[in-house]
Amino acid sequence: MRAKLSYAVTAAVLVFYFVLVGSRGVMLIQSGTLITVTFGVAVLILPVIGLWFLWKNTQFVRRANALAAELDAEGGLPVDELKRTPAGRIDRDSADEVFAKRKAETESAPDDWRSWFRLAVAYHDARDTPRARKAMQRAIALHDGRPVQQP
Fold first, then answer.
1. Which pTM value belongs to this model?
2. Are 110 and 67 within 8 A, CB to CB?
3. What is the DSSP letter of 88?
4. If we measure between CA atoms, which residue out of 33, 13, 34, 37 comes closest to residue 25?
5. To which H or E segment does residue 75 belong?
6. Phi and psi for 90 in degrees, rounded to 5?
C-alpha cells in the first residue's frame, strides 16, 4: 500500500509540474516574438513527453500488478526464499542462486508468461532493474497474446 501511495503522490506532483511548465510555455507563445514562441513550443514539448512517459509507466505497473494478482490467485507467486543480511538487505549469493533457478525455469518454458514473471522478480531481487523490466514486459506480452521480440 505504501508503494501505491508513493507512486500516486509522485504522479500528482509530476502532473502539477507539467501543468506549471505548460502554462509557462503558453505564456511564452502568447508574447508573440519569434524567440519566445520558439522557446514556448520547446517548453510545451517537455510536459507532453513527461505525460506520455508517466502514462506508459502507469500502464506497465497496472499490467504487472494484474499479472501478480492472477498468479497469486493460482498460487504461483514466487516464494521469498532469499537470505538477508542483518540490515535486511538481500544476500547477493542467495539472489544469484534463486536467479539461476528462475532462469532455468524460463529456458525450459520460454512461452510461459508465469516463468517470465518469476524471472522478472528474480532480476529485481538481484538489483538488475533494466532486465527485470524487460522480463516483465515479455511476461505481459505473452499473457496478452501479443508477439514477442526475440532478444
1. 0.78
2. no
3. S
4. 37
5. none
6. -70, 135
